[in-house]
Amino acid sequence: MDDIRLRLRKIVAQQMDQDPAHDLAHLDRVWTNAHRIARHEGGVDLRVLMAATYLHDLVNLPKDAPNRAEASTLSAQAAEPILQSLGYEAAEIEAAQHAIAAHSFSAGIPAKSAEALILRDADRLDALGAIGIARTFIVAGAIERAIYDPSDPFAAQRDLDDQVWSIDHWHLKLLQLPNDMVTAKGREIAGKRARLMLAYLEQLSKEIDTDLPDHWAALLT
């Protein structure tokens, strides 16, 4: 397993785009999350899970790309020759490809295996907590999206719009992820990380001299 991981890391380091929100460090963190969940769940093919984890962002399209939903399927296709070169059997490759294709939120592909469910949770955990906060603003900077609406930072009197305001994305998606986790360990970790993000928003509201509406905290109850 250690040898396969080293070889996978070397391959993706050479082939991935230089996106600091979806880089080798992201893959290492997702693998840490996935391995932790797998130990708790049991009955998981770790070879398949590791392969899917390190190749799930092989094709990374910008968040605002019109074909963003296709990225996971394209990554699954690109993973096949790599896994063949690493000696994976056909059934393992098929299983890894399914996990890769189904991990994406935007793709909407149902996860049908333990490995797919775990990768789905593990990847989403990296959008939460301290690292999730950092990644939010890395992505926002890359696509020139503002942090918040100066006239109504937390959408107290307007509709949420995460195509314009970065913080709105937390309400529309990220702070709802704990309830969307499918593994028990994933839900536990996600809840802790989401509460940290809520604490950040409470501090932000003080620094910009406004109030955090109750409907934000209600997402975590």
Characterize the structure shown.
This protein is an all-alpha fold and 221 residues long. It folds into two domains: 2-112, Hypothetical protein af1432, CATH 1.10.3210; 129-220, Methane Monooxygenase Hydroxylase, Chain G, domain 1 (Up-down Bundle). The chain is 61% helix and 0% strand. It contains eleven helices and no strands. Helix 2 (24-41) runs antiparallel to helix 3, helix 3 crosses helix 6 (114-125) and helix 5 packs across helix 6.
Give the termini separation: 40 Å
Biggest beta sheet attributes: none
Mean pLDDT value: 92
Strand content: under 5%
Assembly type of the chains comes to single chain
Low-pLDDT regions: none
Order of helices and strands: HHHHHHHHHHH
Give the CATH level 1 class of the largest domain: Mainly Alpha
Extended strand count: 0
Structural class: mainly alpha
Count of individual helical segments: 11
Give the second-level CATH assignment, the architecture of the largest domain: Orthogonal Bundle
Shape: globular
Rg for CA atoms: 18 Å
CATH topology of the largest domain: Hypothetical protein af1432
Tell me roughly what share of residues is in helical segments: 55-70%
Number of structural domains: 2
